[in-house]
Amino acid sequence: MSIENWIFNDPPDVAVIVSRKIVVEHEWIAYVSHDSGDGAWQFHVTQTEPVKERDAMVVSLQSIVKIDSSVVELASLPPGWHAWRASKDAVWERAKMES
C-alpha cells in the first residue's frame, strides 16, 4: 500500500509494537490490538501468550503493512478493540476488548 492510498487514521510512520517473531522469524500475525488508552497498535503471533518486553520491537505501521498486507482490513478497528484469526489465510474476527 502506497502512502497515497493510506487508509489508516494513523500516519504510516506511527510507532507500533510487534512481536520480534513476526519481523525476524517471519511468523504470521495472529492477533492485533488497538489500545483504548493511547491508541497504540500491537501485532502478535498469539492472543493467549503475553509478550515479554525482550520479545517486542517497535516499528512503523507501514512496515507491518509491508510484512502482511491483510492488516489493512483492520484499518477501521476502533481503539479498545482487538482482532484475531486462526490461520494466516483466515478471516479476521473482531471484538471490543474487555476493560
Structural features:
alpha+beta, 6 strands, 12% helix, 99 residues, 2 helices, globular, 6-stranded mixed sheet
The count of helical stretches stands at 2
Return the string of H and E elements.
EHEEEHEE
Q: Number of folding domains?
A: 1
Spatial strand arrangement across the major sheet: 4-1-3-2-5-6
Q: What is Rg? A: 12 Å
| Secondary-structure class | alpha+beta
Quantity of strands, as a count:
6
Strand content: 25-35%
Cα separation of the termini: 33 Å
Estimated helix fraction: 10-25%
Shape: globular
**Poorly predicted ranges:** none
| Global mean pLDDT | 92
Main sheet makeup: 6 strands, mixed
Summarize this, please?
The chain is an alpha+beta fold and 99 residues long. It is built from two helices and six strands, in the order E-H-E-E-E-H-E-E.
Describe this structure in words.
This protein is α+β, with helices and mostly antiparallel strands and 99 residues long. The chain has one domain. Helices cover 12% and strands 26% of the residues. A six-stranded mixed sheet has the order 4-1-3-2-5-6.
Write the layout of secondary structure elements.
Blueprint: E1 15-19, H1 20-24, E2 31-34, E3 41-44, E4 56-60, H2 61-67, E5 81-84, E6 93-96
